[in-house]
Design goal:
Number of strands: 12
Strand content: 15-25%
Helix content: 40-55%
Distance between the termini: 11 Å
Order of helices and strands: EEEEHEEEHHHHEHHHEHHEEHHEH
Largest sheet: 6 strands, antiparallel
Structural class: alpha+beta
Shape: elongated
Mean pLDDT: 88
Number of helices: 13
Low-confidence stretches: 3-23
Amino acid sequence: MKKNVLLPLVLGVFTFILLPQESFSQERVKIFNIKFNAVEVTGQNRFSNGTQWYQTAIPSQLSSQKNDEYFYSLGSFRPDFKKTETLDLFNLSLQNSSFPFLDAIDFDYYKSYGIGAVESNHPEVIDDVKYLKLKSYIVDSVNTSIADKKKILFATPKLIKDYILLSRYEIITNQFSVDKKKVKQATANLVAQLDTIKVSNNAELSAKVKAYFSSLSDESTVLKGIYIDARLHPAYIAKIEAHISNADLSQIGNDQFSRSVKRYVNSDKAAANTALVAIRLDGTFDKTKINIQSIASDLTGKFQIPAADALKIAATVNLTFSNNETTTFKNKFNNTFIVRYFTSSIIDGLAFQGLKKAGR
């Protein structure tokens, strides 16, 4: 963004702010038509990041990414900080391609910090032969080029490779409770389907049983929220700054990363996505309550429905719950919703050696 922002700048899609968060009113987002206030998710009035000031406004329609892919955009940049379009930058580290200048930053970081972070967070790798072999190349080998080290990294089993790559991030997750009113909203489609199940020709009995199905839906649904605060690791940001501030243009190269970083540094409009906050919903059903025998027993005991009929109805109810668990909780909920991005002031101020910062 390359600007000294002292007051809110309301520009197009995004708002960038540098004011104390206490001065703002309650923020809220909507996911699957369910509204969440910031205070019930974060304990504060805002969806904020404690370390980085420049932030985008919350869009009316949150973007979603698969649960295991939401961090792919960290390190990308927006050529125009007023717009949502992004281009790859430091997130190119996740690609199995050669970017000499970026790779030099990455392997400097892995050697000095990343390896230690991996062993601290995943101590089991210390006894893994394949991990130890990779570590020897990253930390100890002086005769292996960075390009070859990267090839070795990407040829390593995915679990270990990902541990190394993801050490570039700092990811903090906190669970928050979802109240019963929101649970009812999340299961509205399930209840509608349960209402279509034929129970009896007796309207009064059918109404009572369907009320039981609705109650069963609410009581058996286990819904939790996860608030994600993810960012490029401060130690990684420090490595980025150190390498770029000590390099002149002749050292950068002309590959995809090189062109992007030149464009970013020389722009007075670009903003890097160096941190984000996001929300994920996880749901399931309590299997002790949702099973054919338990439901059939209730239908017989509470509503005097004959055992044979109760078993048939219970089987249909059980199948309806099972299908909804797949369509709603495993498919529909299998997304992380990005609330907003942040830009590190350090990354925002990047400049090549001997060159004046764009926009300053």
